[in-house]
Design goal:
The protein is an all-alpha fold and about 210 residues long. Helix content is about 60%, strand content about 0%. The chain binds iron/sulfur cluster. The site of iron/sulfur cluster (SF4) has 13 residues, from helix 8. One of its GO terms (molecular function) is metal ion binding.
């Protein structure tokens, strides 16, 4: 795919949705961190349902740490992998309190050292909370990048690097959200909705249905 096509794809995605953001509900960087940890292999809707009860009761590292692993599980047991997520979150809260004055660090290495936080979660926090031009490649972005030809790659790191290299600078901050939303609602895994796709004429996917 050439530069002009990529420019046009992101111009259209921006025109259709000028201020894209995550569908996770949060009111602070710490809440976002907890929501993103909970969202691994879970839907944003499922996470929002749980955090709608959790955050009014506890939305600081101290308060969630005080719940303890079992107390936290009561709030998140509807979410997949809740046992390990509870353990990770309690440990992450302890580290935030003891090492970072209860603040979420803005640094990739510090974020990735927190239990339950991998490269993808760190990228989401750095991008969504701290507005750094990072690219968290999830299953939706991986699929869209490969199908369209924006940044094909065999694994998520290859796609992440390709996107960072090829997406025009002016779109980089919000590209993560545009691509996720496009994959979640239009370029879905089975039967992509090519007939309703606003970038169909620019997409290189051989099996597109238009
Ligand atoms: S044309 Fe189809 S395959 Fe290409 S981006 Fe749109 S929905 Fe996805």
């Amino acid at each position: 795919m050439n530069k002009a096509k990529r420019e046009e794809i992101f111009r259209r995605l921006r025109d259709a949705n000028p201020n894209p953001t995550t569908e996770l509900v949060y009111n602070s960087t710490f809440e976002l961190l907890i929501a993103v940890i909970l969202s691994a292999q879970a839907t944003d809707k499922g996470v929002n349902k749980a955090t709608a009860h959790l955050f009014p009761a506890a939305n600081t590292p101290e308060a969630i740490y005080a719940l303890g692993v079992d107390g936290l599980k009561d709030y998140i047991k509807t979410i997949g992998l809740f046992n390990s997520k509870a353990t990770n979150i309690i440990e992450t809260c302890r580290i935030l309190v003891e090492k970072y004055n209860s603040q979420v660090p803005q640094d990739r290495a510090a974020l990735e050292a927190l239990p339950g936080v991998g490269r993808k979660t760190a990228n989401v926090i750095l991008n969504t909370a701290f507005r750094q031009p990072t690219m968290a490649v999830d299953t939706h972005i991986f699929r869209v990048a490969n199908r369209t030809g924006i940044a094909p790659g065999k694994n998520v790191l290859e796609v992440e690097k390709g996107l960072l290299k090829h997406i025009p600078k002016e779109y980089l901050l919000d590209a993560h959200h545009w691509l996720i939303l496009h994959g979640r609602y239009t370029c879905v895994a089975r039967n992509p909705k090519c007939g309703q796709c606003l970038i169909a004429d620019l997409c290189d996917f051989k099996e597109k249905t238009v």
